Amino acid sequence: MKYIQANIEQGTVSLNSEEIKDMIENSNFFEEVVDISHQVYEDNILAFRVKLDGSILEEEVERDLEEEGYVMTDEDEYTSVLLEQAEYFIDSAVDDIKDRIESRYNIAHMGSSYNIYQSSSGTSNVRFVLTLSFGAIGHGQLFEITNAVVDKNYTRNTGEFQ
């Protein structure tokens, strides 16, 4: 667990990564959330390894395809569409999480970044690293930190974090 100080309109508030992890878990978008904040040495940044709920994603995509009357018979094409939609889905989910955190703690400036990696083929196992910043850090720098966490800890041979 990592403790940080976040700036609010009238001072600072103490946060810990477990509280934020619980908020992410309660969003119902994800199957698994692991606090990996100890892997980020920068102050005021929390990090989480997250597994997307593949069933929700598949239901959404299938509903959209059905509404458009598009039938997909190629398995690779279907997987490609699902993975593309995963990014949109994660964007929306992260925005929702940020809104809830900002509202709950009255945080003035909060940033986020994520990097999707896939630990196995198919869409039932889409995972990503999510970083949240509670200080003055640009999106580009936060994205670099997110990528560094993935690069440092992702093992291509086993498909799992070390």
Describe the structure.
The C terminus is likely disordered. The protein starts with a strand and ends with a strand. Strands 3-4-6-5 form a four-stranded antiparallel beta sheet, with helices on both faces. Strands 1-2 form a two-stranded antiparallel sheet. The chain has one domain. By secondary structure, it is α+β, with helices and mostly antiparallel strands. A hairpin with a 7-residue loop joins strand 5 and strand 6. It contains four helices and eight strands; from the N terminus they run E-E-H-E-E-H-H-E-E-H-E-E. Helix content is 43%, strand content 28%.
Number of alpha- plus pi-helical segments: 4
| Helix-and-strand structural type | alpha+beta
Number of domains: 1
Percent of residues in beta strands:
25-35%
Mean pLDDT: 84
Biggest beta sheet summary: 4 strands, antiparallel
Strand order of the largest sheet: 3-4-6-5
- The total count of strands amounts to 8
Give a short overview.
This protein has one domain (3-161). Helix content is 43%, strand content 28%. It is built from 4 helices and 8 strands.
List keywords for this structure.
disordered C terminus; 43% helix; 8 strands; alpha+beta; 4-stranded antiparallel β-sheet; 28% strand; 162 residues
Topology:
Elements: E1 3-8, E2 11-16, H1 17-25, E3 30-35, E4 45-52, H2 54-68, H3 75-105, E5 111-118, E6 126-133, H4 139-153, E7 154-155, E8 160-161
Antiparallel strand pairs: 1-2, 3-4, 4-6, 5-6, 7-8
